[in-house]
């Protein structure tokens, strides 16, 4: 898949373009890309980074990093992705200016968007505006109850099973392994300490079964209350894994929330609970 950050890197030729933020690339987004691919010409995705709501001063917890979004867009069938830097100046463009500056310059003939898509200054543009501007517009009906907003609400509750149904795959954590307290190794269950972008949504605190790097993973999200922690930590324990992950990117799937985090009366009781968590992780089923 070709990834471009400048229009000049794509050039102008007949294209079918899917437009959107595509945060999380959930089933609704996948349906938009499938529709674009069915047209038959090059399937180009135009997406925005940073997220428009962040630039406009609104709070939003992202479901995926840009790197992961691009990977998911490729898996969904995109041939090309144009990553447009979203700025206040871009937000001020009229629908006509946006179409001229971005869509026409890459040769867009067909535009595929969700039926509620809005664009341009004050969200003045919609599918009817695209039609008036001369594009072959293919609005894609929304999937009932499938939205980034609903997925965020589910993850805040720790409901990764239902979230997976909306994603079409398991929920994920995406970050870089950094040095932690190294306490897990002394307990017999070494963990990676995952650092994530501050704008990413982190699911509800608790212990989760899942996977990473082809291994089952029992992941703790929280503050380590047994040790009086206050700083949030994300600590996956990769079952049957040996190796050094420091400095490496790690994508962790979350399949099932096993329990709340809590303190214990003794370290022996903590270790016994971790052993149960590992057993439950081995038997967990991948949702999606």
Outline the biggest β-sheet: 6 strands, parallel
Count of discrete alpha- or pi-helical segments spanning 4 or more residues: 10
Strand content: 25-35%
CATH architecture of the largest domain: 3-Layer(aba) Sandwich
Structural class: alpha/beta
Give me the CATH fold name of the largest domain: Rossmann fold
Number of domains: 2
Kindly report how far apart the N and C termini lie.
Answer: 24 Å
Number of strands: 12
Element-by-element helix/strand order:
EEHEHHEHHEHEHHEHEEEEEH
Parts with pLDDT < 50 across at least 5 consecutive residues? none
Strand order of the largest sheet: 1-4-3-2-5-6
Mean pLDDT: 94
What percentage of residues falls in helices of 4 or more residues?
25-40%
Overall geometric form: elongated
| CA gyration radius, whole angstroms | 21 Å
């Amino acid at each position: 898949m070709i990834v471009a950050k400048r229009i000049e890197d794509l050039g102008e030729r007949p294209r079918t373009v899917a437009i959107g933020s595509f945060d999380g690339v959930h089933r609704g987004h996948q349906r938009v890309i499938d529709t674009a691919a069915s047209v038959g010409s090059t399937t180009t995705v135009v997406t925005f980074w940073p997220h428009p709501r962040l630039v406009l001063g609104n709070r939003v917890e992202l479901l995926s990093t840009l790197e992961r979004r691009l990977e998911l867009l490729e898996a969904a069938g995109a041939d090309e992705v144009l990553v447009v830097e979203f700025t206040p100046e871009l937000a001020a463009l009229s629908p006509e200016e946006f179409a001229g500056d971005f869509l026409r310059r890459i040769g867009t003939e067909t535009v595929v968007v969700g039926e509620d898509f809005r664009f341009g200054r004050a969200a003045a543009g919609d599918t009817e505006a695209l039609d008036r501007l001369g594009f072959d517009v293919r609005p894609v009906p929304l999937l009932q109850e499938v939205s980034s907003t609903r997925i965020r609400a589910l993850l805040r509750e720790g409901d990764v099973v239902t979230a997976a149904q909306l994603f079409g795959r398991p929920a994920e954590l995406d970050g870089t392994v950094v040095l932690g307290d190294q306490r897990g190794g002394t307990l017999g269950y070494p963990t990676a300490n995952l650092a994530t972008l501050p704008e990413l949504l982190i699911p509800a605190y608790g212990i989760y079964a899942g996977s990473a790097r082809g291994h089952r993973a029992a992941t703790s999200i929280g503050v380590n209350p047994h040790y009086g922690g206050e700083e949030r930590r994300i600590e996956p324990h990769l079952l049957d894994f040996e190796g050094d992950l420091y400095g490496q990117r790690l994508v962790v799937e979350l399949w099932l929330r096993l329990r709340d985090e809590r303190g214990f009366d003794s370290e022996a009781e903590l270790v016994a609970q971790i052993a149960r968590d590992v057993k439950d992780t081995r038997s967990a089923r991948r949702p999606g």
